[in-house]
Amino acid sequence: MDCKKNAEMSIFCKIRRRDVSFWWDNWTVLGALANIVLGGRTSKNTKVQEFIHEGAWMRDKLMGKVSESTVNTIQKIKINVDKRDYPIWLLEKTGEFTCKSAWQNLRRKGCGTFTSSRIWHKQIPFKISFFMLRLLQARIPTDDVVNMVTSRCSCCTKHEEESINHLFTCNEIARHVWNYFCNVCAVKFSQGHVRHVLMNWWIAKANNEVHSTLLQCVPSVVCWDIWKSRCAAMFENKKMSAWHIIQKFLIL
Ligand SMILES: [Zn+2]
């Protein structure tokens, strides 16, 4: 199944006559849209053409289905109504499928096992490892993933759209928490994409076995505590605080 998924990601459907499945074909280069939304209907019969009117994208209709950032990506796609849809194999310049490029792509995906190997450790509870797996696949229900029309984060006074990167690394509370643990464990902290922050921990050179365990386990537990704190803020009206998250970690 993994091979099938990888191969599907490499097939890009060019929008021509628009007989392309809205949810299940890879026509936006984001992969199948059904994989990046949680909940809602993702019927195979929904066609891209339902979202086009007089040669233009119907922004309001798209906004009801996917997040604003996805809508912005879609609106950059040119529509050509005169020609047929056809699949393009993204791994070859010619657009034609070859077994060689498919195999090389699968081998490269093997590097992804490094990331997976970092989230499983006997010191990390299963529920946290599973959570990290979903986080790295952008499959946790932050507002941008579940397509909330009015999204306001719970983490800071700016109340920006809640996204994975904003929640886990970019807002003030997350920065404070990461700075604290990065200082303790001698890891470089560079604010930005959550994967970069995690990778800084996972590729840092360990001084000894204890340090090595900390480098592997701390970032997963920090993400988990940030998520728990976010859920408490959203559903129990408890204010998020960096010190509270740090304290929770320390008494674990
Ligand atoms: Zn925020």
In angstroms, what is the radius of gyration?
Answer: 21 Å
What is the H-and-E element order? HEEEHHEHHHHHHHHH
Helicity range:
40-55%
Strand content of the residues, in percent? under 5%
Question: Mean of the pLDDT scores?
Answer: 80
For the largest beta-sheet, the strand count, sense and barrel status come to: 2 strands, antiparallel
Number of strands: 4
Distance between the termini: 37 Å
The low-confidence runs, each spanning 5 or more residues with pLDDT under 50, are none
Number of helices: 12
Question: How does the SSE layout of this entry go?
Answer:
Blueprint: H1 2-9, E1 11-14, E2 52-53, E3 56-57, H2 59-63, H3 68-75, E4 86-89, H4 99-109, H5 112-119, H6 126-136, H7 143-146, H8 164-170, H9 172-185, H10 194-202, H11 209-236, H12 242-250
Helix pairs in contact: 6-11, 8-9, 9-11, 9-12, 10-11, 11-12
Walk me through what this model shows:
This protein has 252 residues and is mostly helical. The chain has 12 helices and 4 strands, in the order αβββααβααααααααα. Strands 1-4 form a two-stranded antiparallel ribbon. Strands 2-3 form a two-stranded antiparallel ribbon. A hairpin with a 2-residue loop joins strand 2 and strand 3. The two termini are 37 Å apart. The site of zinc ion has 7 residues, from loops.
